[in-house]
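cron nightly-structures :: item 1 of 1
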Amino acid sequence: MRALVGVEASPVVGIAGDFDVQQRQHQIGQFPCARCHEQPQELTSLSEANPRWAHANIRAIHPARGSCNTCHNYDDLQTLRLQDGTTVDVNQVYQLCSQCHFEQAQDWAGGAHGKRLGGWRGRRVIMNCTDCHDPHAPAFGPEIPVAGPRIPRTARRH
């Protein structure tokens, strides 16, 4: 099947279904981590007490009772750590999210949650969880609905 032009995608791993997910490493401004970090890092808290810290812009309210190393692999900063200790590429963040958000992951895999790229024909390529959700604060805030289209009324005929 034809690939979408300009969309880097890879097959989904670890979740039932035959589809691709958009790769997102190239969209992360502070990736690869090795640009700043030369070696594995010690656990550091995201604290407003240290505003000069490079990651002070992150509002870490997720995971609720976790710390940075709940998801981030400090032994290899280019990867994420799953609950069982195995590591996954940043492009496979859906594997990390699906460990807790399994109902949303089922909907995502089935096409009822998330955004499909490139229309409905051809190979199914969808966006990753973190393309829509901030992984550190994933809930969407309240928004004012956009007004619907204005359709001119036509005269009634009898």
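cron nightly-structures :: done
Helices lie at 93-98, 102-110, 129-132.
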